[in-house]
Amino acid sequence: MRKKGLFCFLLMLAMVANGQPRKYLGGDISLLPSYEQAGTVYRDFDGKPIEPLAFFKKMGWNAIRVRLFVNPEYAPQEHKEEGVCQDLKYALNLSKRVKDAGFDLLLDIHYSDYWADPSKQTIPHLWENVKPESLSDSVYAYTSRVLSSFKAKGVVPDMIQVGNEITFGMLWPVGRIHPMKDDNWSVLCKLLSKGCKACREVCPEAKIVIHTERAGEWDMTRSFYMHLQKYCLDYDIIGLSYYPMWHNSVKNLGTTLNNLESTFPGKEVMIVETAAYYSHENDKWATGPDQYAEFYPISLAGQASFVRELMNELSNHKNVTGVFWWFPEENACGNDLLPCWLNRGLFDNHTGKALPALKEFRYHSTKS
C-alpha cells in the first residue's frame, strides 16, 4: 500500500509539473439522501451491503456532482415524483458530506425550480415578475447567495455549472436562443456573465462549466461555443451531455471531441452527464423492450459494453478531463421512492447490487 501510495503521489506531481489538469471520474448522486431516508440498501457486486460514497471511492471515483434548484417546492407534482427536491439546504448538506468524504465537488445550478433541459428552461416562481432587463441581476444575486452559503459552511465547490443543458438558452423566454442563429445572444450572455461573475467573486478557485446537450451535433455545439467566444464569456470548461440513445455513436462523440480540441484549444471538456439503459422494466416512457437499442442491446451486457467503449474513447482525448454518470444511485429495491424506473443507474432495481457497468466505468491507466 505504501508503494502504491508513493507512486500515485509521484504521478500527481508529474502531472502538475507537465501542466496536465486532473482527471475526474464520478457521478451525479443528487437523489442519494432520499433513497437512504427511504431505507434503501446498496450492495456490492457480491451482494454485501455497502456505504455508497465509500464504495464509489473504492471504485476509483474522485468527484461527485450535486444539482440545485431555486425553489423546488414550486415544482409541478409530476417533477417532484421524478426526484426534484434539491433545494439549498438539501444540496448543501449532501455537498458537505461529499467534501468530507474526500471528493471534489461539481455544483450544478439549475436556474429553475425544476428540471432545466432541452425541453424546458422555466423562470423560477419567485422571479416571474422580475423585469426582463433585471433578470441578470437576479441570477447574480442568487448565485452569490448560494455560493456564500456554501462557503459559510466550509463547503467550496471545485467546479460550478452555470446553467444546465442550455444549448437553446435559459430562463425562457427571456434568455432563449437558437444555437444556429444570431438572435438574442447578447441577452443570454449577459445572464451567463452575471452568474460567472458571482462564481469568480465568491469562489475564485473554482472552475466554471458551461453545459450543453448536443454532443452528437457538431455544428450546433460549435456554433454555441463560438457565440460565447464572440461575447467573451469568462468560463473554463465545456460541459457536454452524452447519451448514446439520443446523441449518436461513441465514434461520433470522438469526432466532436477532436473538433473541440482544435477549435477551442484553451478549454477543458467534460462529459458532465452520461448513462445508458440496461432494461425498460417499469419504464413509463419506453415504447417497447428494445427501444434505443440502435448501438447497444438493452441489457446488463449492453450497458457494460457502452461504458467500456466510452471510456476507451475518452482516454484518447487529452482535452477531456472528466466524466460523470447521471443518476448512478437509482435503486428501487425495497422502496417506492419513484413511481417508475429509468433503468439507467449502476445498481439493480430488484436486488440493489452493483451492476457490471460500474466495473467498466474507469479511465484506462495507460492513457490517462
TrEMBL record:
Coiled-coil residue windows: none
InterPro entries cross-referenced by the UniProt entry: GH, Glyco_hydro_53
Family: Belongs to the glycosyl hydrolase 53 family.
GO molecular function, one term: arabinogalactan endo-1,4-beta-galactosidase activity
Tree of life domain: Bacteria
Record protein name field: Arabinogalactan endo-beta-1,4-galactanase
Catalytic activity: The enzyme specifically hydrolyzes (1->4)-beta-D-galactosidic linkages in type I arabinogalactans
A UniProt-annotated Pfam family: Glyco_hydro_53
A single GO BP: pectin catabolic process
Enzyme class of the recorded protein, top EC level: hydrolase
Stretch forming the signal peptide: 1-19
Gene3D superfamilies: Glycosidases (3.20.20.80)
Biological source species: Xylanibacter ruminicola (Prevotella ruminicola)
EC assignment: 3.2.1.89
Entry keywords, A to Z: Glycosidase, Hydrolase, Signal
